[in-house]
Amino acid sequence: MRILVIEDNRLLRDNLQALLSAHGFHASFAADGRSGLQMALIEPPDVLVLDLGLPGLDGLQVCQRLRAESDRHVPVLMLTARDALDDRLLGFRSGADDYLVKPFAGEELVARCLALSQRHRAGQPHVLCIGSLRIDRRSHEVQRQGRRIELHQTSFDILLALAEAWPRTLTRSELVQRLWGDTPPDSDPLRTHLYLLRQLLDKPFARPMLKTVHGVGFRLESDEGIA
């Protein structure tokens, strides 16, 4: 899970870095509202942990602008020392999904982040469809134009990541992070896995779906209308 933390207290950032890394999460950090908002818009995290008292833009402004400008829903967990009911209600009206008052237990923050990420996926269908492509998250079955495609696990993980991001382009670094986390192999296996995926997903069909966006990354393109 990718978590973005926007927090201006350096000691708390360091503590959260250790906590989130220990639980296997990939955490990015920003120390002010403006840079944090840009990070969230450019590469939306699975969960945003957002302090309220920030320089530049405060947490409420960041949340409001994120809701107005992002092309997807990013779950937001607000962190604040303000524990009055009115403060909580203002946070929720600004677009927060959850609220955690400082000081807090690290395990509770982790549990809330996990719950938010799962809640965000709860409404997503088990089967993703893009054009004639059909991906079943539960059974890992993949079909295109009604023909079953047998994929190894890594190829399936790449395809699922691209399908979940569709129509957005995923950067190479995003795919590497999704597959191997913070410990990518020394070699460049992504190139090989993308080649294998293309052979199975595209070669038997008239129109390729896996596209390379030069200088950016990779994305899926619908084959809608192709028989």
UniProtKB/TrEMBL annotation:
Protein name, per record: XRE family transcriptional regulator
UniProt domain OmpR/PhoB-type: residue ranges: 125-222
Residues covered by the Response regulatory domain: 2-117
Example GO BP: regulation of DNA-templated transcription
Any single Pfam family the record assigns to this protein: Trans_reg_C
Sequence positions bearing 4-aspartylphosphate: 51
DNA-binding region per Swiss-Prot/TrEMBL record: 125-222
Domain of life per record: Bacteria
Transmembrane keyword on record: no
Alphabetically ordered keywords of this record: DNA-binding, Phosphoprotein, Transcription, Transcription regulation, Two-component regulatory system
Record GO terms (molecular function): phosphorelay response regulator activity; transcription cis-regulatory region binding
